[in-house]
Design brief:
The chain is mainly beta. Helix content is 10%, strand content 38%.
Amino acid sequence: MKEAIEIGKSYLFHGRMIYLGEVVEVTLFDIVVKKCSWMQDMGIRMGELLSGGIVDATELEIAPPEDLVTLPRGSFARFPWHHELPSRSQ
């Protein structure tokens, strides 16, 4: 059974792209996150992310912290993210 998505917790969302963010709202169809960053290149960068974590934000696109990003709920695998979220934009 899948664990419930908890508001206020951070997750890595894996689909066609990888997203990191803190959940602020969950609806029947969407997950809304803040402090969102994403990785567009799923090749080498993804392997580096999963093996070494995020050393800095050079490999990620980062939304301004006040922006909310809506992700379609059914199209992502999600994993709890127990690390600090990236905070600087490139």
